[in-house]
Design a protein that fits this description.
Elements (H helix, E strand, L loop, with lengths): L13 H10 L1 H12 L6 E6 L15 E5 L2 E8 L4 H18 L10 E7 L8 E4 L14 E7 H10 L8 H4 L5 H7 L4 H15 L9 H24 L3 H19 L4 H8 L3 H7 L3
Parallel strand pairs: 3-4, 4-6
Antiparallel strand pairs: 1-2, 2-3, 5-6
Helix pairs in contact: 1-2, 1-7, 8-9
Length: 283
């Protein structure tokens, strides 16, 4: 007798997604090539939330870091989309850039963030974003890129083309429900492999104990608060918690400025105005 599953976890569940791509590198390669719109010759998973016991390290709250040929990609799964998530993803991107940059080297590594967005309101399939100089409107740096991928839009285009847009299939399949996985797995070996992994994870109940989206957000917010408090207390214990927290902010901002990160971008990341940032600069 087959086992009944009360709630079938789908590929858009971030932990299911991570298990899929870590179990099958061919699927990961197909997803990357479809999202990056380029051939990928070599991939290596450098870090994943599944690798650690949720310790609050600098890179542990990133979903998945992959080295693709000679650059780094962070993949984030977003089951909803709003301004707060956009800002959080920018923080993730600079966390990755900070982790892979070697101090003392003049050349900065190329870093790309791919945000898979599961939101029917998303109007685009794939949008590529660079940092723009607000004065000249030119590209500020070629080493940083954000790629937003609308999974539901890719799925819609795939079906509207009568399944001819196979280049979108690796993205579209991340948004398939149980019935669609069953149907398309009869036509595609890649979807069949994905469905098998998803089925195994559901029937083996490996999803038990994984964080919900709400728990994940609370964990992340707590990590940010703890890091800021730790920096502040280390520098300003004698001056009290409030003053110490400000000192911690000052150190973090000055570290970003030392890395030549634009003040406008620091403002977007920190929520502080340019004037406040200038007031924090250490003399």
């Amino acid at each position: 007798m087959s086992k009944t599953i009360e709630k079938y976890a789908l590929p858009k569940n971030d932990m299911i997604f991570l298990k899929i791509v870590e179990t099958n590198k061919t699927i990961l390669k197909s997803i990357l090539e479809s999202s990056l719109n380029t051939k990928v010759s070599d991939i290596m998973i450098k870090n994943s939330k599944l690798y650690k016991n949720r310790e609050k390290s600098k890179s542990n709250f990133l979903d998945l870091i992959v080295k693709v040929d000679d650059y780094y990609v962070n993949i984030e799964i977003n089951t909803s989309w709003n301004e707060n998530i956009k800002e959080r993803n920018i923080r993730f991107l600079y966390n990755l850039e900070n982790n892979v940059t070697v101090k003392g080297e003049n050349k900065y590594p190329r870093v790309v963030q791919i945000n898979f967005i599961f939101d029917k309101c998303t109007k685009y399939t794939i949008s590529r974003n660079k940092i723009i100089d607000e004065d000249t409107y030119g590209i500020y740096t070629d080493s940083i890129e954000i790629i937003n991928v609308g999974v539901d839009k890719a799925k819609e285009k795939y079906y509207n083309s009568n399944k001819k847009l196979t280049r979108l299939l690796p993205i579209a399949m991340l948004g398939f429900n149980k019935k669609e996985l069953e149907e398309i797995s009869k036509e595609s070996e890649m979807v069949m492999e994905l469905k098998k992994i998803v089925d195994d994870l559901n029937y083996e109940e490996l999803t038990a104990g994984w964080m919900s989206v709400e728990e994940e957000n609370k964990w992340y917010e707590g990590m940010i608060r703890d890091e800021a408090r730790k920096e502040g207390l280390a520098e300003g214990r004698a001056e009290g918690r409030v003053e110490g927290f400000k000192n911690g902010q000052k150190i973090l901002i000055n570290n970003m400025l030392k890395e030549k990160i634009d003040i406008a971008l620091i403002s977007k990341i920190s929520g502080l105005t340019s004037e406040q940032i200038n007031n924090f600069i250490l003399k």
